[in-house]
## 1
Amino acid sequence: MKINITAKPGSTRNNKTGGWRTFKPKTDLDKCISCGTCAKVCPEGCIEMKKIAKYEQLKPKTDYNYCKGCGVCAAECPVKAIVMELDKK
Amino acid sequence: MYQIRVHGRGGQGVVTAAELIAIAAFYDGKVSQAFPFFGVERTGAPIESYARIDDKFIRTREQVHAPDILIVQDSTLLGVTDVARGTSKKTIAIVNSAKEKDKLNIDLPKENIFVIDATKIALDKIGKNIVNTTILGAFARATGLVSLNSLKLAIKEKFKEKGDKIINKNIEAVEVAYKSSAEL
Amino acid sequence: MNNKNQQILEGSRAIALTINNIGPAVISAYPITPQTHIVEDLAKFKADGDADYEYARAESEFAAASIVEGASAAGARVYTATSSQGLLLMAEVLFNIAGMRLPIVVTCANRGVSAPITIWNDQQDAMTIRDAGWIQMFAENHQEAVDQHIMAYKIAEQTNLPVMVNIDGFVLTHSYEPVIIPTRAQIKKYLPDYKPKKGQYLDPANPVTLGAFARPQHYMEIRQDLHNDLMSSLNLINKEYIKYRKTIKTMKSDIGCPMSDFGAENNGLVEYYGPKKPKIILVAMGSVIGTIKEVADKTKGVGALKIKTYRPFPEDAIFNILKKAKYVAVLDKSISLGHIGPLASDIKSAMQGKIKAKIQSFIVGLGGRDITKEMIGGIVREVKKGDGGVKFIGK
């Protein structure tokens, strides 16, 4: 058998889905209360709560390589710190 | 025979675009053919579709490997798939982008590239980033391969089950794109 | 320029409109890609009040085939369509339908078979039931598919043999091209309303048993009978083709074929396209013939033979064409794994000792692989080196 017909775990990362976006979420870190809701609801799991200089608490960081621009984070943010902007491409 | 290849992503109406070209050309009295690159048409996946226009019945069933006209509905595909494969110096490309044509990653003579911000027009007129009808307005103007009138009739026929409201929005978008495009 | 009766339609829509105009009494189907659009359209016609048939939704292809089998046994004109795994799931019922001599028409939107899973076109599905006792036709384009469906009912209802019309999935089902759909009135002139013969259907006033148990002293003769009737249907298929073309004037489905109608080179069983004295003949079934014709136009000494009727196998009609050639390349969109292409195998056995030409089996287009003019050009070069084995042409 020459062709390996099994797929290994983690291979979906090779497919960067950021290009699918029409709208891009933009997060206002000053307005953000670090509740972490956006990271929990992101269906792609591409928002990570991280230590970002200048801020004491953890802040969300979106990986735009995989963000499809679905807007769930913006809809769920309790303080409306995330806005969806037209992605220029 | 003119061969047209449409590139886009699942959900942008790539397959419908080729069908509309074929229907419009048929209304213009020409013989046409359209078919998709039979993808698993899930949202976001790169999709291709093809159309051919001729004066006699089109027998060939192979995909379009040497397009006379390229329609690119999503410019982010330019770095992802080989959009320009099989093109020649004569190939005309109609690209949906907000950028200047010099900044597009496509290997074609600049004078053959037509850029239209179809996303902006579609969001404005239709309310969704479904650019297939809009970009065909530019296609009709730039290539003259289908008439604006036949294109509108094709939209009416293809979308008749969707209702007048959607038909009119799409026709409006086509008209804006047609007017804002240049003739070849 | 377009004929005023022409419309530009998706292949699936063209078939659905034709079936509605033929007017079956019962339709039952289970959706599967790429057959889906056909049965969706038929369900929609019914929901919109544009159709008279009963549309029975089924929970599987096995059920759909069984429903039409039962309805046909009760004397109704019926229709179903499927593809690939769906056809395989129907297989048991399909053998029964042929054995019970029910005049059922099925569309197979040809698709490859798992595994690996594929939704794309090849003709492996149809090949799995070539031995089931069905008449199998293959269409090159939308018009031929439309015409074959109408002829299929006429042939089935005269011979009490089921007919399967094969159309390449996606290539024909999902493409748009000009086509003429015969009207109900036109079809009625050619195909009268279905009235099953007394004693051949389930009727309380005249009770019969269909598909009964047969012991060794009877089974063989019954199967032989089925075979004999299939073989003798070859003549009828050809006759019906001529009658159809004279009654219902659609576009020539062999559009672009300059050969005269109804002769050895173009009839209900086969169609030959190419020079009078070809050196090489490429043989194939279905939509790929269109691309082969384009290559034949540009390559000296190359002809194309289209097999329209695959079962019963039109041995004499094929011999009449192939006797002219030095080399024969058979293009199969399927393979009998462990042997060669099924059509190639049939042609080799049927032509053995009759023609001198070398016959070579080529496998193309499995699982939706695009078949380009370059590939066909490659086959033209390769066939002369023929070693009698099987060659896969994938690029």
## 2
Amino acid sequence: MMTALQLAQTGAGATFLQTLVKALALGSVYVLIALGFVIVFKATQVLNFAAGAIAMAGAMFMSILISDGGIPLLPFDNPLAPAEGEAASIPMWGVHVLIALVFAALFGLVLERVAIRPMVGQPLFAMAVVTLGIEVAVRPFNLDATALESRNLGVPWKAETWELAGAIVPKSYVAAVVLAAIGSTAVLLFFRSRLGVAMRAVAFDQEAAMAQGINVGRVFAIAWGLGAALAALGAITYGMAPFPPGGNVSQEIHPILAFRVLPVIVLGGLDSIAGAIVGGVMIASAEIFAGQYLSQYNDTLGSGYSTIVPYLVMLVVLVVRPFGIFGTPEIRRV
Amino acid sequence: MAESILEVEGITLRFGGVTAIHNVSFQVNEGELYSIIGPNGAGKTSIFNTISQVYRPQEGEIRWRGNSIMGEMPDVVANLGIARTFQNIELFPQMTVVENLLLGRHIRMKNNWLSGMLWTPKARREEMENRERVEDIIDFLEIPEWRNHPVALLPYGIQKLVELGRALAMEPELLLLDEPVAGMNLEETEDMARFILDIRRELGIAMIMVEHDMGLVMDIADRIMVLDFGEKIAEGTPEEVQRNPDVIAAYLGSGDLHIGEA
């Protein structure tokens, strides 16, 4: 069986298709994590630097649940875990993903209650630094829990692939796109609801929002819960082979995943759902296509040059449109 | 005499060593236009903030329709039917007039988030009804031409009206107006006065108005309370208050009587 990273030898069309699929898949991971950032920013005007740690905690929880058959932090066995040496069925795996997302959401709620709620009304900068503190505090737990090893996520289809017009399409890549589509739709619908509107109001002016009868604390909690779940879904998605962690939660790759999404939200606009979606796909495309089509200049550019492409794009965007492509420019009457 | 809806009893509010409000009591009756005046820093806005529970007074009691609202969150107070405007306009600047007013409808919308997300017929119907109420208010305030403008781009006087409209959209039973005509010219002030009187007459909403424009206050208020350095120094009808020697001393003494000034 061919591995997915191996390129099919059948010409330019297939190479392009394969690169496109890879870009869309990576884009999907970026979209999910970026949505997590955006939803927190929309409610609180704070860039959540703890997103990476929360995302990894969610993926870790999932790995312990499904691969160790345990329930993390509790002395029980997971009754749903697949038997030793067997893979979970796809629906059962989905159930585990959902449980991990619920855990991540609860984790987000707890963090919000403990560390963010007391900061309501404080300068935004202080709140952002608190999120950085959460990142620093949670990360050692993540690394301890991995015992500094990569931990398996029990993806049922492992690294299996389909073949499409000569191109190799990993099942995980298709799954990533599907998961991102579900996540994006849910978020878009959410912002059409009354609660979404309340969230926008809270972001603009907490005091005025309260005067309209909006429960600001509840809005904060919902934003953190949703944001945490989305980030965790992104981390789990990225854990599917042939993404670099290779079906695992990686103690090397996962902790920095969220920071790789920063160019996405800068490009798309910190407060824009559409921006997160378009920006995620654009940044991933720039990264993957540069990696594929400039690889002949590897000697000059140095290996791994593709990982800096997103930041180059981010720099250009910051110069031209500091509020991103879809972000809200500040309106001032002149 | 009409039934009292809001009773404030002996509230004292301190910030560290500063006593912003000292032992102030008053009550507001159904449908009444009650006004609070006083020199700058007398504690007028602080009284609003204690009623909406943004500030928690250390002593005293505030009752809304007989029930204490002390210790409630501001959003809970808003849900009880107490709406407010702010001295410095606090609209949602990037949203349009309609969107700002629809936010005022937030507490009147009953559909849950799921039906809102899925845009069910019930949610759609509710949205239509609320949209209609918003249009009524826009017509009432005579600002239809600004309907779809982001409020940050509107002239100041119009923004004041939009903020009043947002408070009205909540269908409140008590409206707290914090300097509704501050910074307005004569014509805008007259318009605002007319709207305030219409609100009382047509909608029967009780109001507490903090205002520096003495002409306006003396013209339209039913009763007036005068504050000075956080203490209540007089209360009564406009005529009674104008004749009160303490009031005259407070104003003349501080040189702060802004008759007819914005």
